[in-house]
Amino acid sequence: MYKNDKVIRRYSEPFKLKILDELTTGKLNKYQLGKAYGIAPTTINEWIKKYNRKDLMNTRVTVKTKDEITRIKQLQKEIEQLKKLLLKKDMDALVDESYLEVAAEQLGYKSVIDLKKKLNTKP
């Protein structure tokens, strides 16, 4: 054998399904099944995707205490309040700019910038 020779393994459909069935029972996890049958856990993951068995994929479970849940709710409420304040500030700035545009037009200025210059100069 040569140094770079790789063994290519082909698994039958029934064998793949058998592994997924064993995984479904929950007696062995992917790593244990991989060790028992000489299969990489990533190969088992590929089979899970191939056969659309998302129920067998690892899922992340987050356990939270009541204090954490309360704190998260408070933070979410605070975020909503800040969003509303930011929106109000943006709307106020837009209204102010609109007032200046109308005032500049009625007072005969070419632009709002000219009006602002006039207002900022002190006699």
Describe this structure in words.
- It is a single chain.
- The mean pLDDT is 87.
- The chain has two domains: 13-56; 66-120.
- It has helices at residues 13-25, 30-37, 41-50, 66-107, 112-120.
- It has 123 residues and is mostly helical.
- The longest helix is centred in the C-terminal third of the chain and has 42 residues, at 66-107.
- Helix 4 (66-107) packs across helix 5 (112-120).
- The relative contact order is 0.06.
- GO terms for molecular function: DNA binding; transposase activity.
- Residues 65-92 form a coiled coil.
- Keywords: Coiled coil.
Unreliable spans are none
Shape: elongated
Main beta sheet strand tally, sense and closure: none
Radius of gyration: 33 Å
Class from secondary-structure proportions: mainly alpha
The number of distinct β-strands equals 0
N-to-C terminal Cα separation, in Å? 97 Å
Strand fraction: under 5%
Mean pLDDT: 87
- Please tell me the total number of domains: 2
Summed up, the helix count is 5
Task: Describe, in short, the structure shown.
The chain is mainly α and 123 residues long. 67% of the residues lie in helices and 0% in strands.
Name the features:
single chain; 123 residues; mainly alpha
List the topology elements:
Blueprint: H1 13-25, H2 30-37, H3 41-50, H4 66-107, H5 112-120
Helix pairs in contact: 4-5
